[in-house]
């Protein structure tokens, strides 16, 4: 069995310590905030990022380009190893296509190496959930082909449900209309969203009040989990600098499903630039998205 390396993106919103522990590498979608570029070498602290967003900063993000992808892929294949790359949703970024182009170029130079590029149609710790299972399977000795097959079979079973505290960030990203954002904020309306089968963010409902929106995340999980109840080895929760709210959702998940293995982590700058402070997202395996 050939050696292989799992690579993903910083959009998985996993702790940096997790990457090191599990020997997973990542490409970085950069973030421009107040004229400063943040990337893999120049990282902004989560607390500072959200403080500046709350103060009015409006960050923008950039996809990975083919040259950057080719560099990191080549660093692996030139050592005689194969690449399994799990990409940020093509429904939200051009990064997957950049990496597909990079892989095609490298296959000509390294015909004996395998470079598998998978569009996860996932974001934040939804993408991270697929990477978590892939890394676990690799550690158990599974081949790249076995892990690839499992990931492809479970992409549309990777459920993302989330809510945001401030609709204006979604308006700025073109997700809701200005009228909806203004009226929703005034009426304390909290939208419920998910990532659909095309990897796009889709509003699926709205509730009144923050606590109700957090509880609704768990109700949405109950609707979707089906025969995957008992099969989730871990549940992931990402948040936009609102750890207490994420912990409240984790408590509800434990009470409802008996799942105690929950990883919580702040949403990084790339996803946070669009979701904003106060976002809470819940990720798990279920029958449908």
TrEMBL record:
InterPro entries: DegV (IPR003797), DegV_C (IPR043168), DegV_domain_contain (IPR050270)
Gene3D superfamilies: 3.30.1180.10, degv family protein (2.20.28.50), Dihydroxyacetone kinase, domain 1 (3.40.50.10440)
Keyword Cell membrane: no
Entry GO MF terms: lipid binding
SUPFAM superfamilies hit by this protein: DAK1/DegV-like (SSF82549)
Keywords assigned by UniProt, alphabetized: Lipid-binding
Top-level taxon in the UniProt lineage: Bacteria
Function summary: May bind long-chain fatty acids, such as palmitate, and may play a role in lipid transport or fatty acid metabolism.
The protein's name in its UniProt record: Fatty acid-binding protein DegV
UniProt source species: Blautia pseudococcoides
